Automatic annotation (TrEMBL):
Pfam family, any one: S4
Enzyme nomenclature, EC number: 5.4.99.-
Listed GO CC annotations: cytosol
InterPro entries recorded: PsdUridine_s_RsuA/RluB/E/F_cat, PsdUridine_synth_cat_dom_sf, PsdUridine_synth_RsuA/RluA, PsdUridine_synth_RsuA/RluB/E/F, PsdUridine_synth_RsuA/RluB_CS, RsuA_PseudoU_synthase, S4_RNA-bd, S4_RNA-bd_sf
PANTHER family xrefs: PSEUDOURIDINE SYNTHASE FAMILY PROTEIN-RELATED (PTHR47683), RNA-BINDING S4 DOMAIN-CONTAINING PROTEIN (PTHR47683:SF2)
Protein's name according to its UniProt entry: Pseudouridine synthase
Amino acid sequence: MERLQKVLAHDGVASRRQSEKLIMSGRVRVNGDVVTELGTKVGVHDKIMVDGVPVSSEAPTYVLLYKPRGVVSTANDEKSRETVVDLIENVPQRIYPVGRLDYDTTGLLLLTNDGELANRLTHPKYGVEKTYVAKVTGIPTNDALRQLRQGVEVDNITYAPAKAKVLSTDDKKHTAIVSLTIHEGKNHQVKKMLASVGCPVEKLKREEYARLTLKGLNPGDSRYLKPEEVKELRRLTDLA
């Protein structure tokens, strides 16, 4: 038996806190009865509904995708564009992306139906690191790298300190390849941080996420996470 709000969070209905609000507001039914007590526990055979919609408990599923350019990081797109979920074949469970990558950004993206883990992975409290490699216009100076390492402010938004280093430079084209490791996930964060130090991004790729890499994958490829990889993600987010 598990607490109702934990089940709702795990099944991707909402975060744990939002699930508690759903329960207290009388929007959740268990076996046909409205439940408003947060201590309520449910089992695998109980029928749960939120706003009249059944909640299905599926086996936890974790998929790593090498997102290509020109694909949106969502389960459904109102403009009928190709989504990251469209790229995942032969996965019967209803999975959705953990966070997002921009339309023109490539790289590592996780998809899961484990709502609780997904919420923790994207919460800055747990400091889960994400490493990006960017081709930028301009060559970052030591001062620019120092600013990135100390954290920058853009449009009244403060971005936490990042691990930054220059991987290579092209003096003729006046471009550089830069690695940036962050633990937040604010909108267009990497692009804004690099632009703020005079190095706008031309191309961007996420190469690592919580020690996971793209090794062995080509753009558009995906694979299930190994049990030990899931265990490590849970350890990093205090779910172990």
